[in-house]
Amino acid sequence: MNAPTEFSHNRRDFLKASGALVVSVAMAGLSADALAQTGSAGKPPLVPGELDSWVAVLKDGSIAAYFGKIDMGHCLDVAIAQIVAEELDVAFERVTVYMGDTATSCNQGGASGSFGISAGAKPLRHAAAEARRILVAAASTHLGVPVGQLAVADGVVSGGGKRISYGELIGGKYFNAKVEWNRKVGNFMDIKVQAKLKSPADYKVVGKPFRRRDVVNKVFGTMDWITEISVPGMVHARVIRPVIAGSVPLKVDDAALRSIGDARVVRASNFLAVVASKEWDAVRAAQALKVEWSAATNPFPVMEKLHDHIRAAKVEKSEQRVKIGDVEGAFRTAARIIEAEYEWPFQSHASMGPACAVADVKKDSATIWTGSQKPHYTRDGVAELIGLPAEQVRGIWVMGPGSYGRNDGGDAALDAAFLSKLTGLPVRVQGMRADGTAWDPKGPASVHRARAALDASGKVIAYEYISKGFSRVNIATNEADPSDSLVGQELGMPLKPVMGYGTPEESYGFANKRLAWETIAPLLARSSPLRTSHLRDPVGPDIHFGSEQFIDELAAAVGEDPVAFRLRYVTAPRDAAVIRAAAAKAGWQSRPSPGPRHAGDILAGRGIAYAQRNGTVVATVAEVEVDRRTGRIWAKKVTVAHDCGIIVNPEGLRYAIEGNVVHGLSRTLMEEVRFDRNSVTSVDWASYPILEIQDAPESIEVALINHPEIAPSGAGEPTIRTIPAAVANAFFDATGIRLRRAPMTPARVLAAIAAASA
Amino acid sequence: MATIVKFTVDGKARSVKVDDPAMPLLYALRDDLKMKAPHFGCGVAQCGACTVHVDGEAVRSCVLPVTAVKGKQVTTIHGLGTPQQPHPLQTAFVEEQVPQCGYCVNGWMMTAAAFLKKKPKASDGEIREALAGLKCRCGTHVSIMRAIKRAQKQMA
User: Fold this and answer.
1) Do B63 and B130 sit in the same domain of this protein?
2) Closest in A72, A228, A655 to B101, CB measured
3) What's this model's pTM, rounded to 2 decimal places?
4) For every residue of chain B, which 3-state class applies, written as one string?
């Protein structure tokens, strides 16, 4: 959706087509049974307990499905269309999925935790099945043929020599049928229905590859991203954030703006922006404005001492997630103890473009167009910020320039809404590059301590893994509360930070085992460019960079092949299966790491890592080349085995996995937010380098394991958590050297090689 | 003082009133001419999302002053091809389902199109070198290589 060339025009057409503006239509064609459930001919309120909130049969017999999540190019809308088509017994092509608009969908939590299919599809599936049940019952009455003798093919109900289509039965009208909402809001919103669901054995549409619907418009330049949304009378804004973290504007001199079109300053408390009719005028006004900022307070440690700061910092909160047996007792009996520490940096979303949003705030209503991946929560935050009831604010998600978590999208939306309120004009905010790199919420830096006890035979008798770092939710994962946004913090709203982290997700059956996390206070509490929140697979790559390297360190300590060692200890059969599948697909040769030493400048090695994530399990084999002259690590070939239960769309799944691999390689090899005592100095792609095409793998091989009997789990994030350790283990295999600090940059590789040969 | 800068965009004569001669071409294309395809990604020529062709050469429109294209031919992705008459790269990018968020895809196709015109039989290594500097945050690089190789075959 949201690909119209003339946005407002098409949106109106859509509302008409979807029936929202249809107020009086005769109910002819509906059965007495269905009619008994109809109240008025108008659309029932948009609440989860109404079937019409989820699915509609349009006049032409096509199907509209209303999805309270969004798709960022991972084929999720296609999978939803498949699932709806399957349960309704209509052709896939007939189903259109409308996403992320608070006027047409319930709050299913937006993009979150790879729950798009595993949780997000459930109410849609249930609604489609219920719609089919009601339609078949109506057809039975209409045709005078018992339900048991009716069959549905592509939206046509037939039996006893008679037939009627869904469109003829209800097209353009409403079901007015109640469904039982589970009272949950967000990811786990679901409905209970009378209809019986189809058995996966009977699937015809689910499990087949279907192509994405947004690709053609993206390739021919005919799509509107959030950056293309335009509202009549709109002005352009740039928000000015302090050069020095934590400082506030003392004096603003706008003399330089007099020669820049109609550019002017808009300021409220510590929130500072410029607006202008022309976008370039807003850009140069922001550059020209003279601001005197309050003095620096040196909130940040020296960057090279960041991990020492984390080690020394007071633990504010901790949680022991797994405690099995008597870990301390087992360590006292150990024949051998192995210990290691791993370090992970702050990382930036650094989305492809800085975030953009358009807001049109009127006296008693408002519309916010946002690229934030949780538009219902964005709506809530905007409503609170501008002082309107949530139901008078409409949030419309439009494809943004990337979103893999709580990036700068939410901040841009609240900035735009606040500026629209202050100016009384529709306002478009787009960040400059630094707003997307220096000022987005960050993935938290961390230190991970691992130790294991081995008995005399080399068996692991105790294992402990403790992660210590900044909170993954210093600001919330969505912007429903303005105090979690930069504008809210600049306006002095009370802060509500939360502490949270995570532990490894695996099934290693060590007899004594402890997995725990500890979090520390943020470096700067308010308006910090190093505030932390969710970045794709929050803390997953970070934790498993250490934990899956440590498993390899144990295998190496006992001289065992890394695959065989894992298979010795994993207890979940699906875990063992993905490890075997990845090894088989990669042609893994069983031998301990490191491999035999070779002369020459290019050293080759292979490594494996595996992890679970919310029901999905992934194993990855990385084959790398290390150039000992330059320190470059090239992951030449990456092989992923992936089990997420039943596969809805194998083609979409492969692309989602490939993206995970490359994003993971970038974060493993290159990405680290740089800062000095007073500011984040990663402001663009030169100061925050990411992986480019020279360093992309030559090939990514994917082995998909399909389990039609197991409910689907996520695929947007699980793979990425296996990438860092797979690469680090391959580096060790190639060089015999452990790199326990990410990113594994050429400088660190060269230093490690020099230290090893000294 | 405002000046009028005339140039062609995708074969059509266009003119833009320019207040600041330093204004990058990107703002003329997007804000004045309402062209959607070239995107703002960085503003410092580090990502390629804004790439257009000027007289056949791939350039980063976010740093090129609009005054520098006076009298020149600017081509955007719309001028590269249409669904009815697609450029082989566009066909290949659809076939390989390349874009995820898709914000960067303009830069990859425009840069690759200008390069393949000069060197249709480029090797994998040469292609990678020619595309250095372009960014993709969704990690579609492997499918980009597949698509370019597919387009090369079609163009051969």
Assistant:
1) no
2) A72
3) 0.95
4) CCEEEEEEECCEEEEEEECCCCCEHHHHHHHHCCCCCCCCCCCCCCCCCCEEEECCEEEECCCCEHHHHCCCEEECHHHHCCCCCCCHHHHHHHHCCCCCCCCCHHHHHHHHHHHHHHCCCCCHHHHHHHCCCCCCCCCCHHHHHHHHHHHHHHHC
